[in-house]
Amino acid sequence: MELRRRHSSGATATATSYYGRSRILASDALPLPIRHTNRLFSALFVASLVFLMRRWRQKIRSSSPLHILAFSEILAIFGLMASLIYLFSFFGITFIQSIISSHEEEDEEEVDFASERKPSSCALVEKPKLVTETLPESDAEIVELVVSGRIPSYSLESRLGDCDRAVRIRHEALRRMTGRGLEGLPVSGFDYSSILGQCCEMPIGYVQLPVGVAGPLNLDGREYYVPMATTEGCLVASTNRGCKAIAESGGAHSVVLRDGMSRAPVVRFPSARRAAELKAYAENSANFETISLMFNRSSRFARLQGVQCSMAGRNLYMRFTCSTGDAMGMNMVSKGVQNVLDFLQADFPDMEIISISGNFCSDKKPAAVNWIEGRGKSVVCEATIKGEVIKRVLKTTVPALVELNTIKNLAGSAVAGALGGFNAHASNIVSAVFIATGQDPAQNVESSHCITMMEAVNDGEDLHVSVTMPSIEVGTVGGGTQLASQSACLDLLGLKGPNTESPGSNSRLLASIVAGAVLAGELSLMSALAAGQLVKSHMKYNRSSRDIAGAAQ
C-alpha cells in the first residue's frame, strides 16, 4: 500500500512538472515560430505513432513479417525519431527517467535486496497534511481519545510517526474497550515498522510461536536443517526421525516438474458466442507472442507460460500461468493479467471484466485444477529406505508400511472423497515450514496436495517411498520473508533473498526442501501407525502437564 502511495505521489509530481512545462512552452511568452514548431513536431509525433501502431496490429492479424517495411512505414519511423529528438530537447531526459523509475518502484520484485533497508520508527509513514486535531503529548490522553472514537485507531501510526508507540496505545485502548486483559500478548521486542504497509494493519502485539529444527535432511547430496514453527508436540521429533532414516539410507532425491504461478480473471460477454471468440483467440498459439508481450511488461521476472480457458455460459475464465523468479508471485501475475485485459478491451469492447480473480486460479482453496495442472512448484521427492533402517530406526517392517499406505493413504482417502489428500499428514509439515519461513499460511490448502506412494523393492528387502506435490506455492522474497525471524530461518537454509545469478533457483529449492521434509514426516508417522506407537508417543510429548494438573483440580 505504501509503495503504491509513494508511486502515486511521485507520478503526480511528474505529471505536474510535465504539464507545467507544456503550458510554458505553449504560452504566448514564447516566440511565434517556436510555438508553431512545437505544434508541428507534436502533431508529427502523434501521427507517426498512431500510423505505426495500426500497421503493426494489421501485420499481426495477417501474420505478416514485422521486419519488412513499406516506404510509408520508413517515413513514419523517421518522423517519429525526429519528433522525439526535438521534444526531448524541450522536455528533458529527466522526465523520461522519472517515468522509468516510477515503473521500477511499482514492481515489488525489483527491490534492491543487496542493501537491506532498516527503516527507523515508522519511516514508511507519510504524515497527513491536514491534522484536524493536535494530539496531546501524554499516551494516556491519546488512549482516551481512541476509546472515545475521536481518533481512529488505524490512524495512530501516521499521526504519531512512531510505530512502537502507536501499538502500545492501541493495545491499551483495546484492553479498556473490551475489558479483557491482554497481559499475555507482548508488545515490546518487535520491529513494527517492518510490517507497516505490507504485512499487518492495526497491530496490537505479536504472537510467540516456538521454532524447532528437524535434520539434517539429506536431499540431493546436501544437508539441510529444516526450521518448523508449530505448537503440535511430536511433529518436529517425528520429522527428525524420518530425516534420520533417510540419511542412513543414502538420502532423498527431488525433481521440480513445473514452476508457474497462475491467476484466472473472469469476464462476461453479451453472448456465449462472443465469449467463445475470445477463448479461441486466447488459446490460439499464433496470438501467444502478442499476449505475452503485453503480460511481460509487468515485471522483468514475469514470463507468461500459457493461457487456459474455460466457459460457463457467457462467462469466460482465463487461467494465465507465468514464471515469477524467486517471488511467490501473486502480485506479479495479477499485474500482468491486468495488462492483458486492458489490451484485449480494444478488440473486444463488449467484454465486461467481472473480477481479476474468478476462482479458476485457484488460490487458497482445494481445487482439482491445481491437483491436475499444478500451481507454483510441482515437485516429486523420493528415497529408498533400507529394510534394516526401517526395523532399527522406524521400528516396523517393509510389508507393514506398504499395506498401511495402500489401505490408509490410497483406499481410505478415496473412501473419504479426498481431493489431493492421499497422504498421512503433509499439511502438518507444510504449515510448520511455511510459518517459519514467512510464506502465506493460507496457501497451505493447495500446497499440501500430496500423494504418498510406498513400494517394496530389491526383492522386498527395502522400501521405495515418494511424495508427489503438484502445487507448492513458496517464495524467498516479498511478504513475510523479509521479517527478521522468518529471514533468519531462510538464511538457515541458505535461501535468504533472491538468487541474482539464477532467478527462481532459491524458491524452487525451498519447494524441494518442503517436499523432502514432507517425505520424512510421512515416513515417520506411517511407521508409528504401523507399529501402534502413535497414541503412546502423543501421550508422552503432546500433552501439557499444566493442563492435566488443572483439570484434576
From TrEMBL:
GO terms for biological process: coenzyme A metabolic process; isoprenoid biosynthetic process; sterol biosynthetic process. The keyword Oxidoreductase applies. The chain crosses the membrane at residues 68-93. Its main location: endoplasmic reticulum. It catalyses: (R)-mevalonate + 2 NADP(+) + CoA = (3S)-3-hydroxy-3-methylglutaryl-CoA + 2 NADPH + 2 H(+). Signal peptide: none annotated. Gene3D superfamilies: 3-hydroxy-3-methylglutaryl-coenzyme A Reductase, Chain A, domain 2, HMGR, N-terminal domain, Hydroxymethylglutaryl-CoA reductase, class I/II, NAD/NADP-binding domain. Catalyzes the synthesis of mevalonate. The specific precursor of all isoprenoid compounds present in plants. Its EC number is 1.1.1.34. It comes from Rhynchospora pubera. GO terms for cellular component: endoplasmic reticulum membrane; peroxisomal membrane. It is found in: Endoplasmic reticulum membrane. Belongs to the HMG-CoA reductase family. This is 3-hydroxy-3-methylglutaryl coenzyme A reductase. Keywords: Endoplasmic reticulum, Glycoprotein, Isoprene biosynthesis, Membrane, NADP, Oxidoreductase, Transmembrane, Transmembrane helix. It is a multi-pass membrane protein. Pathway: Metabolic intermediate biosynthesis; (R)-mevalonate biosynthesis; (R)-mevalonate from acetyl-CoA: step 3/3. GO terms for molecular function: hydroxymethylglutaryl-CoA reductase (NADPH) activity. It holds the Pfam family HMG-CoA_red.
